[in-house]
C-alpha cells in the first residue's frame, strides 16, 4: 500500500457507549494493538509529519511508515508484515522503493549522519473493526480505545477511523457524514503520532498551524489542500478543548484565505456555494463559544463538504 484514504474523528465521551453498540455488530472483530513510535533525538520525522512504528497486532508484527499525503484525506503509507514472534528489530530498508520510504531517506539525510532512531512514545489500544459497504465503496470502520504513553505521561485515546478499502472516495465522505451526524463525531486531523509527539514534548495539545502563503500548485485540488490544512488543524485543536489565542488567530487567517480562494473560482460553482457558510462560521466565531461552534454538526458537515471539493470527478 502506498496511499491510505481515511477520515478520523474524535468521540465525545457522552456518545461513546452508543457508538460502541453501533460498531460491535456480529461481523465486528476485536484486535489488541501495541505500537512503539521512533524518531531522531531532534524529532526530524515529527516535524515533517512523518511516523515510523513497530506494532503488534494480535499475534503478528507490522512495521509501518506514514508520511503526509496530497490532502487531509490521504497519507502515504507502507506496511511490512514481519514473521518474528519476539519483538523484531526496526529496519528502515524495509520501506525502500516506496514513496514513503523515499521521504524517510530524504529526512534522515537532511538530519545528518549518525542520527539514531529511538522510541519517543507508544500506544496501546483495543480496536473494534468491521467492513461496511456503501455507495459502491468498501470502508473499514475502526473504533480505537486506549492510551498514548510517553514516559510517565498518559493520554486517553478514543477515536474512530473510516478507511477506504475500495470504491469512490465520495462514498467514504458520505458514509462518514452520516455517522458523524448520528453520533456527534468531531473531525480530527491529528494522527496518533502527532498526539504522541505533543505528549512526549510535555505540551497540552498541538501547537498552532500557521496559515502560511499558498505555494504554486499543479491543480485546484492541491491548492485547496494547502488552504484547508491549517483550517482543519487549528479548528480540530480548538474543538478538542485546549487552545491559545494564536490558534484562533491562525484559524481566522486561514478561513479568510480559503474564502478568497473559493470565491475566485478555485473549485468552480461548488466551491463558491460554500463561501457563505464559511463567512457565517467566521462571523459566529468572533463572539461565540469557539469549541462548541467548531464541534457542531453543521461545522463537521462543512468540513466534509470542503474535503469533497478536492476529490477527482467520477
Architecture overview:
With 314 residues, the chain is an alpha+beta fold. It has helices spanning 16-23, 44-47, 99-111, 169-183, 192-200, 220-239, 245-263, 268-287, 290-295, 297-309; strands at 3-10, 29-39, 50-57, 60-68, 74-82, 118-134, 137-150, 153-166, 186-187. An 8-stranded antiparallel β-barrel has the order 1-5-4-3-2-6-7-8, surrounded by 4 helices. Strand 4 and strand 5 (74-82) form a beta hairpin. The longest helix is centred in the C-terminal third of the chain and has 20 residues, at 220-239. The model has no long low-confidence stretch (mean pLDDT 95).
Briefly summarize what is shown.
The protein is of the alpha+beta class and 314 residues long. It contains ten helices and nine strands.
- N-end to C-end Cα span: 22 Å
Helix proportion range: 40-55%
Tell the overall outline.
globular
Mean of residue pLDDT values: 95
Helix-and-strand structural type: alpha+beta
Element string (H = helix, E = strand): EHEHEEEHEEEHEHHHHHH
**What's the helix count?**
10
Stretches where pLDDT is under 50 for at least 5 consecutive residues are none
Q: Give, in spatial order, the strands making up the sheet with the most strands.
A: 1-5-4-3-2-6-7-8
Main beta-sheet strand count, sense and barrel state: 8 strands, antiparallel, barrel
Taken as a percent bin, the fraction of beta residues is 25-35%
Oligomeric assembly: single chain
Report the strand count.
9
Radius of gyration: 19 Å
Amino acid at each position: 500500500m502506498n496511499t491510505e484514504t481515511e477520515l478520523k474523528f474524535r468521540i465525545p465521551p457522552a456518545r461513546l457507549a452508543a457508538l460502541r453498540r453501533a460498531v460491535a455488530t456480529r461481523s465486528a472483530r476485536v484486535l489488541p494493538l501495541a505500537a512503539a513510535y521512533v524518531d531522531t533525538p531532534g524529532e526530524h520525522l515529527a516535524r515533517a509529519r512523518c511516523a515510523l512504528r513497530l506494532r503488534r497486532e494480535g499475534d503478528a508484527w507490522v512495521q509501518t511508515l506514514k508520511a503526509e499525503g496530497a490532502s487531509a484525506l490521504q497519507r502515504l503509507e507502507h506496511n511490512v508484515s514481519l514473521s518474528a514472534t519476539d519483538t523484531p528489530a526496526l529496519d528502515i530498508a524495509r520501506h525502500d522503493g516506496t514513496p514513503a520510504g523515499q521521504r524517510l531517506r530524504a529526512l534522515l539525510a537532511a538530519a545528518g549522519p549518525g542520527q539514531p532512531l529511538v522510541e519517543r512514545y507508544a500506544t496501546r489500544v483495543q480496536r473494534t473493526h468491521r467492513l461496511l459497504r456503501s455507495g459502491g465503496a468498501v470502508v473499514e470502520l475502526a473504533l480505537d480505545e486506549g492510551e498514548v504513553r510517553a514516559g510517565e505521561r498518559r493520554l486517553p485515546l478514543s477515536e474512530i477511523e473510516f478507511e477506504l478499502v475500495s470504491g469512490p472516495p465520495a462514498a467514504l465522505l458520505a458514509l462518514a457524514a452520516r455517522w458523524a451526524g448520528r453520533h456527534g463525531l468531531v473531525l480530527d486531523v491529528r494522527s496518533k503520532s502527532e498526539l504522541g509527539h505533543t505528549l512526549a514534548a510535555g505540551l497540552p495539545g498541538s501547537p498552532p498551524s500557521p496559515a502560511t502563503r499558498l505555494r504554486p500548485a499543479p491543480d485546484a485540488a492541491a491548492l485547496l489542500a494547502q488552504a484547508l490544512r491549517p483550517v482543519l488543524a487549528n479548528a480540530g485543536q480548538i474543538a478538542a478543548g485546549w487552545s491559545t489565542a494564536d490558534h484562533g488567530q491562525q484559524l481566522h487567517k486561514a478561513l479568510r484565505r480559503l474564502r478568497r480562494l473559493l470565491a475566485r473560482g478555485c473549485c468552480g460553482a461548488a466551491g463558491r456555494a460554500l463561501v457563505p457558510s464559511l463567512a457565517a462560521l467566521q462571523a459566529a466565531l468572533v463572539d461565540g463559544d469557539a469549541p462548541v461552534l467548531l464541534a457542531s454538526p453543521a461545522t463537521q458537515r462543512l468540513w466534509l463538504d470542503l474535503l469533497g471539493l478536492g476529490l477527482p470527478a467520477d
